[in-house]
Design a protein that fits this description.
heterodimer, A: four-stranded antiparallel β-sheet, B: 2 domains, 21% helix
Chain lengths: 252, 440
């Protein structure tokens, strides 16, 4: 599904990604962990198509197509979804109108008819229930005045509405209390199937108690330095990242 | 040079005005006395030129051809009113006041609305004892304001409405001003809204035109709000070419009254709105909202004045311009806090988006504060849209161009929160969406 090969990226002449490679297939859950400032969020933003990064080298293909050549909305239509670390507030745009536009753009792209308003409303109610959101959120402005937990739930709700193929979750667990974490993870687990894949970026192992990864990668210095299964996450939780840094030192 | 030109205009005006004398003979003597004063004032002031500080950016004389015969009397060539196509904002509403070419049209208006008295200005002028007689022109600044003087001198029709004491008018009253006149004209309708103690009312007001020759439309709305009354007034201006409009609103508020004006302009060759509010009592609330969304070479100039004359009052002003193409927006917001007006809270916000490089915006907030225990603030910004918001929408599959329009719509929509009739608000949202070319 997703192939990232030897990606080198800089921002304002500062190198952020330094030979990053990763392959993700349908049905897989990948966790990317690592200390602050190693380029995890940069990776997420680049996949979604945010401007301002200089791609120096390397490639990203999504179902064989060059992702880097696609504008952000086309990536979304093709099935890439980024659940933001800090979802932005958009005063004046209601959740309902926003999702109506997004869902119908997707249907147009897939050659389907626009969804009738009633069906859309019904779908919204169903999907909101997945993340235990109150139905009055539909008429509120996107993320405006939402608590940290509500914003993250809204991300998962949008994910449920748009049914993407590749879901990138950028520190979705940050700022969540234990109840919200459970709700958000439940939502994700209900959406997970053999046709989609998840890339879960996180600092902490606790999210991975709920969303069980098939692969855990440790990112350091702009690339993956260690990969393993879920036991690697426990090891990191116990020992921190220093032992990995130490392991790498002799090589440098 | 300038003086000669002004003299010529005044001469022209006096000549035209003298033709109207028959019309005035039937009017109440005290009305006639004010009209005479207003005429004298205008003869001194003349039409404001761009050298006048208050008219620096708006060249209203473009709207008048001084060489041709101009009709100063509100007459209409159309008499078969039922055949006219009128774009009502809410077709389901029963309460309508229809003004065509400056005249009150009885056939199309609702004359009986419970709790109100409605009449044409023409018949109010002829009456010996009318709620208008005492108030006519009393709080307009016609001695120094040329356009108010022009209106008061010439006006001979319009509507007068009284909302009776403690009456709550449930359904919005829709006022339509339609211009169909094809003869070059200067039309000066005069409207009086008297909201008695404890009364509550909502108005929607639409200015539209079908004329094909240059017409100068100089309307005057005089509001008198008694204590404890509530008035919510929404004006929508969506004009075709060839109409040059000056709308003068003068509002007097008494104790514990609440006045909201929502001024929306979506197109117009030249629109100037003068809105002046004066507080005559305490614990008054005033909300002035404005949305100007233009493209092409349209020009809209909003001048507002909130005159805090008494203590313990609150005013909140929120005007936004969205300008595309070569459109020109002007906002001049003046707040006066007089020495007596302690504990005043006065806020003003003016946010703008220039969509194109060629759009022009001139803004001037003016705060004149003579009391020391007050809270006043003003803020003025002109900005691009938020890149992060744009990216968020794009990342959900929405094309950049559509995402931009969604954000512009949202920016516009925030100024509509003062409209208390939700159906009216939706109708206006639809007009804005139509203007932007998006679906909502």
């Amino acid at each position: 599904m997703l192939k990232i090969n030897n990606l080198h990226v800089s921002i304002d002449n500062k190198k952020i990604l330094n030979g990053f490679s990763l392959e993700v297939n349908a049905g897989e859950v990948h966790a990317i962990m690592g200390p602050n400032g190693t380029g995890k969020s940069t990776l997420a933003n680049i996949l979604a198509g945010k401007e301002g990064y200089e791609i120096e080298e390397g490639s990203i293909t999504f179902f064989g197509n060059d992702l880097l050549e696609m504008p952000p909305h086309e990536r979304a239509l093709a099935g890439v979804f980024l659940a933001f670390q800090y979802p932005i507030e958009i005063p004046g745009v209601s959740n309902a109108n926003f999702l109506k536009a997004a869902v119908n753009e997707k249907r147009k792209y897939e050659g389907l008819e626009l969804m009738p308003a009633n069906d859309l409303l019904k779908m919204m109610r169903e999907k909101m229930a997945l993340v235990e959101m109150k139905s009055d959120f539909i008429s509120r402005s996107v993320n405006e005045g939402f608590s940290g937990g509500e914003k993250k739930k809204n991300e998962i709700f949008q994910m449920a509405m748009l049914e993407p193929k590749l879901c990138i979750m950028d520190e979705t667990d940050s700022g969540l209390d234990i109840d919200a974490l459970r709700v958000v993870s439940n939502g994700v687990n209900l959406l997970k199937n053999e046709n989609n894949a998840f890339v879960v970026i996180t600092h902490y192992q606790r999210l991975l108690d709920y969303i069980i990864p098939d692969f855990v990668h440790v990112m350091y210095g702009g690339k993956i330095v260690k990969s393993g299964d879920k036991t690697l996450a426990y090891e990191l939780e116990e020992k921190g990242y220093d032992w990995i840094k130490a392991e790498l030192e002799p090589a440098i | 040079m300038e003086l000669t030109a002004v003299n010529r205009e005044i001469e022209w005006f006096e000549k035209e005005f003298s033709k109207l004398s028959d019309l005035y003979n039937s009017q109440n003597p005290s009305i006639r006395a004010i009209k005479h004063e207003a005429f004298e004032a205008f003869s001194k002031l003349g039409f404001p030129s761009m050298k006048h500080e208050e008219w620096k950016y708006t060249h209203i004389k473009k709207g008048i051809d001084f060489n041709s015969e101009i009709n100063l009397n509100n007459t209409s060539q159309n008499t078969d009113y039922k055949k006219l196509k009128i774009d009502y904002l809410n077709k389901n509403l029963n309460n309508k006041i229809v003004i065509i070419d400056g005249n009150f049209i009885e056939e199309l208006s609702t004359l009986k609305i419970n709790g109100t008295e409605i009449q044409s200005t023409k018949s109010a002028f002829a009456s010996q004892n009318h709620f208008l007689t005492e108030q006519f022109g009393s709080f307009t600044n016609y001695k120094t304001d040329a356009l108010a003087a022009l209106n008061l001198a010439i006006c001979n029709d319009g509507f007068c409405i009284k909302i009776n004491k403690n009456s709550i008018i449930e359904d919005t009253i829709e006022i339509i001003e339609l211009i169909t006149n094809d003869a070059p004209s200067i039309l000066n309708p005069f409207h009086f809204l008297n909201i008695e103690e404890g009364a509550q009312v909502t108005f929607s007001h639409t200015l539209i035109n079908q004329n094909t020759n240059k017409t100068f439309y100089n309307s005057l709305f005089q509001f008198y709000q008694s204590a404890h009354s509530i008035c919510n007034f929404t004006s929508l201006q969506n004009l075709n070419k060839e109409l040059y409009s000056v709308e003068n609103k003068f509002v007097i508020q008494n104790s514990k009254s609440k006045f909201t004006n929502n001024q929306i302009a979506l197109s117009g060759t030249l629109i100037r709105n003068n809105l002046s509010v004066r507080h005559e009592g305490q614990f008054i609330e005033t909300f002035l909202n404005g949305l100007i969304c233009l493209n092409g070479t349209d020009h809209v100039d909003n001048h507002t004045l909130v005159d805090h004359a008494k203590p313990n009052c609150y005013s909140n002003e929120n005007y936004r311009n969205i300008l595309d193409g070569k459109a020109h927006g002007v906002f001049n917001g003046k707040i006066i806090v007089r020495p007596d007006a302690q504990k005043t809270n006065a806020f003003q916000s003016n946010k703008n988006i220039l969509v194109s490089d060629d759009a022009v915006l001139n803004v001037k907030p003016q705060l004149e504060i003579f009391a020391d225990d007050v809270k006043c603030s003003h803020g003025c910004t002109s900005a691009q849209l938020d890149e992060k918001q744009l990216f968020y929408l794009e990342s959900r599959g929405i094309k950049k161009e559509i995402a931009l329009l969604m954000l512009i719509f949202a920016f516009a929509d925030e100024t509509l929160n003062g409209i208390n009739d939700l159906e009216l608000k939706e109708a206006i949202e639809q007009k804005i969406a139509q203007k932007l070319g998006i679906e909502i």
